[in-house]
Amino acid sequence: MADKHSRRDFLVRSGSVLAIGLLTPAWLRGVALAQKTERLNGVTARNDNVLVVCQLSGGNDGLNTVIPYSVKDYYRLRPGIGIAEKEQIPISDTLALHPALKPLKGLWDEGSLAIINGAGYPEHNRSHFRSMKIWQTASPDAQATTGWLGNYLDQLQNPVSPVAGLCLDTSASPAMTAGRVSVPTIASLDDISELAGTQDAEEAMRAIQQMGGNGGFAHVSQSTNSALDAVHELNSMLGKYENVIEYKDDKFSSGFRQLAKLIAVSPLTRVAYLSVGGFDTHAGQADKHAELLGNFAAGLSSFMEEMAQIGMRDKVTVLAFSEFGRRVKENGSGGTDHGQAGPIFIAGGAVKGGLHGEYPSLSDLDDGDLRYSTDFRKVYATVLDRWLAADSEKLLGGRFDNLPLFA
Amino acid sequence: MALNTERGKVAHLLRRAGFGASLSEIDYHAKQGLDATLEQLLNYGQVEEVEQIDVFQLTNNKGNLPAPIVSAWWLYRMMTTRRPLQAKLALFWHDHFGCSAEKVQNGYLMVQHINLLNELASSDFRNILVSVAQDPTMLRFLDNNTNVKGKPNENFARELMELFTMGIGNYTEKDVQEAARAFTGWTFQRPNRIQAAVKNAVEPQFIFRQGQHDAEIKTVLGVSGNLNGDDVIDILLDQPITARYIAGKLWSWFVYEDPEEHIVDRIAAVFRDNNYSVKALLRHMFTSEEFFSAKAERALYKSPADFTVGISRAVDLPGILDLVSIFQESDKEKRRLLRGAVGGVMGSMSNMGQQLLYPPTVAGWDGGAAWVNSATMLERIKFADMMFEKKNGAINWNYLVGNRRFESVGDVVDRLCEVFDAGLPAEKRQIVASHVEGLLDRTRGEEKYRQEMLHQACRLIFGSPEFQFC
Questions:
Q1: Global pTM?
Q2: H helices present in B165-277, as ranges
Q3: Which chain B residues are Cβ-neighbours of A335 within 8 angstroms?
Q4: In B240-396, where does DSSP find H-type helix?
Q5: A-chain residues within 8 Å CB-CB of B428?
Q6: Is the CB of residue B377 less than 8 Å away from at least one CB of chain A?
Q7: CB within 10 Å: which end of chain B, N or C, has fewer?
């Protein structure tokens, strides 16, 4: 679009009365209302913290990610794929990181990286799909139709921006599925300008989305309108910023790079979602896993560095998780089968770094798997309550204790 | 084009038992009649196939067959085949078994797999299961080639139960572990170097290695014995839930999603009574009252394959691109031509969330409503841009509307809706017409205007809610 300022800038500046036309998208009406609500309710500070969720799909081998290096069973049960002690990066008297995570050592040393060991949930499910759904919806019966972040976006008093939440992907994450608002999924933020058409074309496209049809029509219309809103918004902003850090080219790095850009230009973005697969290492695990962890660590550390450079270090928290850890004993293929508990990583300037949650015992296994010691919903609850200023009890449908994850 | 006319029913059948059809194909089949059309679709083995590209002529200079060229070869087949139901079923099984080139890392194996799925397409489910379980591509994909006595690998056994036969919740973890033991020793033998040098001379083949097989007693779903993989497959096929799961999934793919309980009862019985014949089940489904009901009409979300192959077939993209001449070209030129020609469509499909040969997980693609989100809608709209780009064939006025005379822009829009089998109601056609009429002031020259008009009209049609369903 040609306008120099985004619609939001204009609204914020004009401040007072806003004429709302029929063609005004819902989120824009929301902005006008938000100004009002803020005054009416006397809310003094808008919560402007940002959460980035990074999903490691396939079941990350937590035991080789955060290694209990003094436990003999570790080496005994993993003669082939166990990480030799001299290669590990020690982070406490008992635990060490996989060598590929070296880029995270800096964050760890400065106290900006928290690791929650033994994260899981009761009555574990070893199916990728069921277990991932459980993490995404925060409901162990996997019956919920909306995601935990979708629930959060739904309860924001008004849809303050079409990109309040954004999935950087070609497929929408169930974690971001909301009941009321529409959360855009955008494949790449690099070619947004190509997607924006003329004002007339955009209006015609909105017009054709309206009216009747089968039940799926509403879903299509909502998706298209959400896309048009997001493209409109992003196109006016993204051109104003170039990444200040160089990233590698893998999926983690490219994802983190684009999210850094998004956060730099979009002050109303609250939650962004990134997922990268490949962690289902049933065979030939060693090289593959090292590569994935290395990419994850490099991407995350570049991202945090960029956040620091643009003064957002204390405003952004990254949460990285996987649907399950893997079997303690390696299999015959130089890999590991599906397991249970695994670590969650939380990084950010406001994060209270260090170890949380009890590391699961390797001698008291559940059918060959690590038992969980911390319900992952405690981590979600902490992030919702302490970081996003939301009511976790409402959003998770139950009370979960907070962990001391934020300073 | 409601489903109360013979022509409407034929078009509906072609959207489901294939990827949609061009106007002339619909004309042809409508003349043939619904019953004859169905029989021709089902008995595809008797239909003379159009010439297909020999994939082994597409190897690169190093003799490798990269997965993208295999995808291009397969996509060309979907765009041109005279056996659309076979192609659609191969895609169904690809989605069902979820083998990804990402893991398999071998184009030859992917070809072997796709050929197998094409061959098995409407066969009986036991044959399909056993053949796929012994397919080197699957053995490698789910690591059963390293599943050996004393060190079982559960990958295949778990997905066999969870995704390929019964569905989650119908077995225990113990069943998975025991079944894994039953499949120990199922692996494949690679061709040796000399054999491999002669391309396609010897494909990797299934082999049962007795020495690696765990011959102890196992218990799977209550059945005990020295079970082998075949026994486990038979045990799974004996579970009533298996017929329900597979028949229900086929119904959801071909008729409408989430069939009612009584329908599942009925089709599961049909499936079992016909020894799990997929063909018999499909015949039952395509002749059922429900198939032609309002509930089924344009009720399924188009997959990216339905969307892009449908459009390609509607305009005869291979014809426009002069791909027919590919058979006269040298191998190297064939490769270049094919990639150039269908590369754009492949890229679009991939951005729409369906990269052939690369299902995102072993569960295949989520499908249904998950095909549509903001990212994929942008891509579906953008497909019109690609179509009108010069290098992608420069679809022009003559191709889309011919030398007909039109009274108004509205007539042109009507014609486009007909060409693309787009069920847009009159009000929406009016929106398209008004928009493209407005372009007249801004576009210089009649030729340019015509092109721009078609392009913009297609963007709106492709982005309409109506067009996302088949």
A1: 0.82
A2: 173-182, 193-197, 229-238, 240-254, 261-273
A3: 143, 153
A4: 240-254, 261-273, 278-286, 304-314, 317-320, 331-351, 374-388
A5: 208, 211
A6: yes
A7: N
Burial tier of B417 (Cβ tally within 10 Å: 0-12, 13-18, 19+): buried
Look-up of token digits 């989605």 = B95
> What CATH number is given for A48-396 in this structure?
3.40.720
The answer to whether B151 contacts A332, with C-beta atoms less than 8 Å apart, is yes
Contact A127 B168 (CB under 8 A): yes
Strands A66-68 and A95-97: antiparallel
For chain A, what are the domain ranges?
48-396
A205 touches chain B (CB under 8 A): yes
Assess contact for B112 and B74: CB atoms under 8 A. Answer: no
Nearest CA in chain A to B430: A208
Query: Quick one: tokens of B24?
Result: 């002339």
Q: In the prediction, which pLDDT does A34 show?
A: 42
- CA of A24 to nearest chain B CA: how many angstroms apart? 18
Query: B195 versus B330: which is more confidently predicted?
Result: B330
Cα B176 to Cα B236: distance, rounded to the nearest angstrom: 12
Chain centroid to CA B176 = 29
Average of per-residue pLDDT values in chain B: 91
Q: Is A127 on the interface with B (CB under 8 A)?
A: yes
- Cα-flanking dihedrals φ and ψ of residue A162, to 5°? -65, -15
Helix (H) or strand (E) holding B42: helix B34-42
Contact indicator for A378, A400 with CB cutoff of 8 Å:
yes
CA dihedral A91, A95, A100, A101 (to 10 degrees): -50
CA–CA distance, B394 with B320 (Å, rounded to integer) = 8
Closest partner residue to B463 among A213, A219, A224, by Cβ?
A: A224
Q: B382: which chain A residues are within 8 Å (Cβ-Cβ)?
A: 195
CB contact under 8 A, A195 and B382: yes
pLDDT digits (tens, 9 = 90+) for A334-375: 999 999 999 999 999 999 999 999 999 999 999 999 999 999
Which candidate from A130, A211, A283 shows the least CB-CB separation from B146? A283
Q: Which residues of A205-223 are buried (b: 16+ CB within 10 A; e: fewer)?
A: bbbbbeeebbebbebbbbb
For chain A, say whether B440 makes contact (Cβ under 8 Å): no
| CA–CA gap between residue B242 and residue B228 (Å, rounded) | 19
> Which residue carries 């497929």 as its tokens?
A171
Contacts of B360 in chain A (CB under 8 A): 171, 277
Q: Do A170 and B352 touch (CB under 8 A)?
A: yes
CB-CB contact of A292 with A64 (8 Å): no
